[in-house]
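Researcher: I'm preparing a figure for a lab meeting and need a structural model of a single chain. I don't have an experimental structure, so a prediction will have to do for now. The sequence is pasted below. Please return the structure as tokens so I can convert it later.
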Amino acid sequence: MRAFMEDSKDVVKIDERTTMGEITALFPGGRRALFARYHIGGCSSCAYQDDEELIRVCDRNEISAEEVIGHLLNSHEEDKKMLIDPLEVKEMMEKGVEVRFIDTRTREEHEAVSIPGSFFMTQELQQEVFGQWDRSENLVIVIYDHTGKSSIDTCAWFIGHEMKHVYALVGGIDGWSREVDKSVSRYRLEM
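Model: Understood. Here is the structure written out token by token.
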């Protein structure tokens, strides 16, 4: 089975021979979707390698690759509702919408470079957000990481706690730097 997902910019193609690394790159919330529904990829007993093909993961877990592909596509459609483009955020701010940025990267990354005025995610901040921040239409919360690959998980967590107007920044701080504010330094992590 080959599945296509049409996006505004391109068509994404996945099939049972697509590697797990390719899938998680194409679908920022794919890891979360696989674990939530099939308990795949969340712990050492159900882990997979990035170079492993989807069909091998499905065979090992005795599930249909076709079903998993369908679930990934449907999950991505839901995830897209949580994503916001850097230029869209900029337009909102220019129109006077109150936007608060929350940085989910490491403290070292935040201290080295961050979107001006952003908050660093801590347990204390999370409690403050859930308990004291405005949940009405007057506040938009934009969560970001380095490249936009993991902030969607935090966004889903906030929405699950009844926060409204919470979005994950497409491309993370790197996308913000490229598209909105070139004074925010770009960097790459060395592992």
